[in-house]
Write a structure and sequence with these properties.
Layout: H1 9-21, H2 36-39, H3 46-66, H4 70-75, H5 80-89, H6 99-107, H7 115-129
Helix pairs in contact: 3-7
C-alpha cells in the first residue's frame, strides 16, 4: 500500500475520490471527515457495517417469509407486524446469544450468507441503473 504523511490525507482522499469515482469533493467535511470513524481513528469499525448489512439481509428475508403481508401493512402505515416479529425473534434476547447463535435461531444457520444481500442489491440496482436483476 502506498504511504504518505497524515497531513496529506485530505488531499489524497480528494484525489482518489476523483480518480476512482469521478466525484469532486467540495470540502473536508463532505470528504475525508464525512464519517466520525475516520477522524477518530476507528477505521477498523467499517467492516462491522458490511457484516451488519449481510446479516440484516438474511434476517429480512426470514421476516418477509414469516410475515407474507408485511409490505401490504407498510402501505397502510402499519408496522406492528414487523415490531412484533422483531420483538419475538430478536429484541427480547438482547445480547444473550452470539451473532452466530442468533443467526441460527432466526434463520436456521449460524453462517453468514451473502446471497440475500446480493439479491437485495440486484433488485435495488436493477431499477436504478436499468440492469437485469437476475444477472449473475
Amino acid at each position: 500500500a502506498e504511504e504518505f504523511p497524515l497531513e496529506q490525507l485530505p488531499e489524497e482522499w480528494n484525489r482518489r475520490m476523483w480518480e476512482y469515482l469521478g466525484i469532486e469533493v467540495p470540502d473536508d467535511t463532505r470528504g475525508v471527515l464525512q464519517d466520525v470513524h475516520w477522524s477518530g481513528g476507528s477505521v477498523g469499525y467499517f467492516p462491522t457495517y458490511a457484516l451488519g448489512n449481510l446479516i440484516s439481509a438474511q434476517i429480512w428475508e426470514k421476516v418477509v417469509a414469516d410475515v407474507p403481508d408485511l409490505y401490504d401493512g407498510f402501505e397502510q402505515g402499519e408496522f406492528g407486524a414487523l415490531r412484533d416479529w422483531l420483538r419475538e425473534h430478536l429484541h427480547r434476547f438482547g445480547r444473550k446469544f452470539t451473532p452466530a447463535e442468533t443467526l441460527e435461531r432466526v434463520v436456521g444457520t449460524p453462517e453468514i450468507d451473502p446471497e440475500p444481500y446480493v439479491r437485495y442489491l440486484r433488485e435495488k440496482l436493477s431499477g436504478i441503473y436499468g440492469i437485469a436483476a437476475a444477472a449473475q
